[in-house]
Design a protein that fits this description.
346 residues; alpha+beta; 7-stranded antiparallel β-sheet; 10 helices; 18% strand; disordered C terminus
Length: 346
């Protein structure tokens, strides 16, 4: 047994799934079934067989991974066949789901545990191999906004598709531009501007109205909103979007209730025709998915991930002579979910 073997992991798990890095460096776990209704056939990840009886025995001696699986087996009522072999498949998802940790028992997704995340901290040796980081709970803090800005700049610099969209924005015809934007250069005194045939870089807001919109652009306040809007009278979600736009270094923001004259059918008809392109050619879209209504706001602190399990991660060795490095792999339920379908936003 390796001298680095921790007492919290049993020998079979150390030689098996831990040595295989919980399948995180294997091919992604995918459903290979091409037709709906034929059931699922899974491939990828790391696969091994164990009996519930063996899990029970190893868990009683303190193996954290066996105890974790034993709980899942009891939830799935697989423990009633204690001597029957159980197939365990672990690994990461694929595509947009590529940061999701997948656990399958007998190649069936574990109920209530379909959505797991595997992550590690930025300063951990495992960070070079595990892409997800722990959730930052203080989403409105300067450090989080600075990190978001750096990620976005990296996206525009390194992603070919994002650069192509940005280039396409420059040739966007004025007939399909939004007529108005919110000037956020002074975030405490925003004002409405007319695009006037130009097409500046802007951010779009997608959010749930959720209640009566008392503060909105109308024919009566059209000119006063161009002079300036009292920041404190705006709903919190829109205030948060203005602050976020300014902090990201973008001058302009598009919000439907302030950039479309709400009591003008003619203006609504004209602006709604270009709605697809409003979002398509935005520098980015803020999805205020944590707010059930516009007065809730979107920059409130998030609950941290409650890590259910911490496992050792054996980093690949650079050479045969080099001693292995050990990091930590955190596995937790992806507890934070959007409480709405983004297609229902405004």
């Amino acid at each position: 047994m390796s001298p680095y073997w921790p007492s919290s992991i049993c020998p079979p798990c150390w030689r098996g799934p831990i040595a295989a890095r919980m399948g995180t460096l294997e091919s992604p776990v995918i459903d290979t079934t091409s037709h709906v209704g034929l059931g699922s056939e899974w491939a990828g990840g790391y696969v091994y067989d164990v009996s519930p009886a063996a899990l029970l025995c190893r868990a009683s001696f303190g193996c954290k991974w066996c105890l974790f699986l034993l709980k899942r087996c009891r939830e799935q009522q697989l423990i009633k066949w204690p001597t029957r072999s159980l197939r365990v498949r672990v690994g990461l998802g694929t595509g947009e789901d590529g940061l999701t940790f997948r656990l399958l028992l007998n190649d069936v997704k574990v109920a209530r545990w379909n959505d797991l995340v595997a992550y590690t901290t930025l300063d951990d040796p495992a960070a070079a191999y595990i892409p997800r980081r722990p959730r930052l709970p203080d989403v409105g803090s300067p450090r989080t906004l600075a990190l978001a800005k750096a990620y976005i700049q990296g996206c525009m610099r390194d992603h070919e598709r994002c650069r192509a969209i940005s280039a396409g924005r420059d040739g966007f015809k004025s007939a399909h531009q939004p007529s108005r934007l919110i000037d956020c250069r002074d975030p405490r005194r925003p004002r409405i501007i007319s695009s006037s045939g130009t097409f500046p870089t802007y951010v779009a807001l997608s959010y749930v109205w959720g209640e009566d919109q008392s503060h909105r652009k109308t024919k009566a306040n059209l000119s006063s909103y161009e002079t300036g809007i009292d920041f404190e009278t705006l709903p919190r979600t829109i205030r948060d979007a203005i602050i976020l736009t300014h902090q990201l270094g973008v001058d302009f923001l598009w919000v439907d209730r302030l950039c479309i004259v709400q009591d003008s059918q003619e203006d609504k008809h004209r602006e709604l025709q270009c709605m697809l392109n409003v979002y398509r050619y935005a520098y980015l879209t803020i999805d205020a998915g944590s707010a059930e209504k516009v007065t809730d706001g979107s920059l409130q602190d998030r609950p941290p991930l409650n890590s259910d399990l911490i496992l050792p991660f054996i980093c690949p060795k650079g050479s045969a002579k080099k001693k292995p490095e050990f990091g930590k792999l955190y596995i937790a339920p992806a507890s934070l979910k959007l409480n709405h379908d983004v297609d229902t936003n405004g």
